[in-house]
Amino acid sequence: MAQTTRSSTHDAYDARPRDNDPRPAAVDDYFKAHLHAASYNDSLEVIRNNSLVAGLPDIACSPSQAKLLMLQARMCNAKRILEVGTLGGYSAAWFATTSPETKVTTIELDSHFAEVARQNLEKAGLIDRVEILQGLAVDVLRGIEEQVQRGDREKFDFVFIDANKQDNLVYFKAAMGITRERAVIVVDNVVRNGKVSSAEEAEKDDRIKGTRELVEAIGKLDAVDATAIQTVGEKNYDGFLVAMRK
Ligand code: DHB
Ligand code: MG
């Protein structure tokens, strides 16, 4: 299945901390209170609430995760950022704050999600830095690759893959074709409550299968260095894969 959808095809994914352990969310709140003082509760946080009110699934990054992604992009001095899976535009908004010169291109299949994201980014005053491309990600990525090959579009410095997990490997390969050397590619949700390490879970859930295909393919690639890190926090037990082109 090749589509970038985040609402209709996934079973309810419990985004709350697991095992009723209050500590991960309390720790996120503590860090946010001290480290996000300037930005927390501002227009970026409004985006998460607007998206829920508009009926989007509660699967956006947490504030700490989104800020970490932006800091990673800033560490790379990223001027061209690509996101696969816009949802309501929350992470795109954070990426848009990487620098005043940074441009974000974000791909979303669902036209309602894309419209909510456009409104959110407009309200946040960031729409001028964000290009929302609505369509099937595989098709949109092919178009982007053609533009890059023709010299009509600059290569990307940083890619965030956060769409339907079944096509993670397709998106990663596409990202390899449209990024510069030393570009960073981050993939969201690679742990999924620990299910990633289970071949049995992959048989039951093609999202786990898609992520395992990606992990195992990257392990055989000479062109990148990669690792993955498990996360807890106000979102469920999950994690990011971080790859860097050599
Ligand atoms: C799901 C997707 C996400 O990108 C995420 O961060 C959490 C959950 C999902 O499809 O269930
Ligand atoms: Mg995600």
UniProtKB/TrEMBL annotation:
Residues 8-22 have a biased composition (Basic and acidic residues). The keyword S-adenosyl-L-methionine applies. GO terms for molecular function: O-methyltransferase activity; S-adenosylmethionine-dependent methyltransferase activity. Residues 1-24 are annotated as: Disordered. GO terms for biological process: methylation. SUPFAM superfamilies: S-adenosyl-L-methionine-dependent methyltransferases. The keyword S-adenosyl-L-methionine applies. It comes from the Eukaryota. Keywords: Methyltransferase, S-adenosyl-L-methionine, Transferase. Belongs to the class I-like SAM-binding methyltransferase superfamily. Cation-dependent O-methyltransferase family. This is S-adenosyl-L-methionine-dependent methyltransferase. It comes from Penicillium cosmopolitanum. The lineage of its organism: Eukaryota, Fungi, Dikarya, Ascomycota, Pezizomycotina.
